[in-house]
Amino acid sequence: MPLQERYLPSVASGERKTFPEELADTLVGIQRLIRRRLGSGGLTTPPLRGAEVELLRLVEARPGIGISEAAKELYLAGNSVSTLVNRLAKDGCLIRETDPADRRAARLRLTEAARDRLRDWRRRRAALVARHVDRLGEADQDALRAALPALRKLAVTLREEAEGS
Questions:
Q1: Element containing residue 53 per DSSP (H, E)
Q2: Closest residue by Cα to residue 111 from 126, 89, 131
Q3: Short-list 78, 65, 71, 44, CA closest to 109
Q4: Is the pTM of this model over 0.85?
Q5: Cα separation values, 125 from 36, 76, 89, Å
Q6: 36-61 pLDDT tens trace
Q7: Is-contact 110 85, C-beta < 8 A?
Q8: Strand ranges inside 86-133, DSSP E
């Protein structure tokens, strides 16, 4: 099976994909490849998984966020976020503080180790993508740059729909 087909799945043979299917498959395939490449090689600590990175980035952006708020923001079940929080706290990445307004609830903060890991993750992700974007021709690079505003708008409409339901 050609590499492209392995990571960018197609519909059953003989069927043509619609533009939305191609776009979704391509975005998922790119994200999967980035995640796999970042999870391999050269790390002194275990690689951060996708959901762990998302949670750490959310806590970085909103220090003191609660677990249920984080679950809602990440569109995950509360018990899934609790499991992530437990693992990340055990690994020294998250600090759970008791919420002064509700002693049963926890507020989340990053440790310095988590900040370092996120910085390293961002640096490695940017380097990986830059290396591959640099291999494209100028026209393809320009096309990707031109597509960014539309992709951001697509993300906004997806988020708005998710928040409305």
A1: helix 50-61
A2: 89
A3: 65
A4: no
A5: 11, 24, 24
A6: 888 755 556 777 888 999 999 999 99
A7: no
A8: 94-99, 102-110
